[in-house]
Design goal:
Length: 187
């Protein structure tokens, strides 16, 4: 029995290490992406109104940053338990059945995210074969969309980690590795 506890604790520590590492990377990507987009937009507005000349690459750069923020953000939202949920039936269930549902939901979502990851790799491959480049920045279009499979993969990992967390932790139901499904009475 002592061996089981040690193995479980070691496995939990490994999951926490993976989760924390992904969290730091996502936070850096999201923060940097938002700051760069804001700076790019502000500098372009100043250039347009003060110098009567806007930067030719500003729109393309913002599109790249929007893709980065969107697909880095889906993993972050999964980690924080912030994705939209339709939970009328789920909320009416007893805790043990909610846990079973959450394991099923997070496992299925993880599988879907890994499937989207696979298909997005095929899309990136087609973009690479097309040889298209962005007109202003003169970089290959596929580089713009590299964040799509990365985001799907990280989100798939996040939901899989939530599945494992719900399997390991016997007492609580986890919406994500960080968020426990709790209900508070409103006064």
């Amino acid at each position: 029995m002592d061996y089981y506890r040690k193995a479980s604790k070691t496995f939990q520590n490994l999951l926490d290490l993976v989760d924390n590492s992904l969290s730091k990377i996502e936070s850096i990507l999201l923060g940097t992406g938002v700051l760069l987009m804001a700076a790019n937009t502000i500098i372009n507005v100043i250039g347009r109104f003060v110098f009567d000349h806007s930067f030719f690459f500003s729109g393309e750069l913002n599109r790249i940053l929007i893709v980065l923020i969107t697909f880095a953000g889906i993993g972050y939202a999964a980690r924080k338990g912030r994705h939209i949920r339709m939970s009328a039936l789920y909320d009416a269930l007893p805790k043990k059945l909610r846990k079973v549902f959450m394991i099923f939901i997070t496992l299925c979502t993880s599988i879907v995210m890994f499937g989207l990851f696979y298909f997005s790799l095929g899309y990136i491959d087609k973009l690479m074969d097309s040889g298209r480049i962005l007109p202003a920045l003169q970089i290959p279009v596929y580089i713009t969309y590299v964040w799509v499979p990365v985001g799907f993969f990280v989100t798939g990992v996040q939901y899989f980690l939530t599945t494992i967390k719900n399997l390991i932790q016997k007492d609580d139901v986890y919406l994500s590795t960080e968020v426990i499904d709790e209900y508070h009475d409103v006064d």
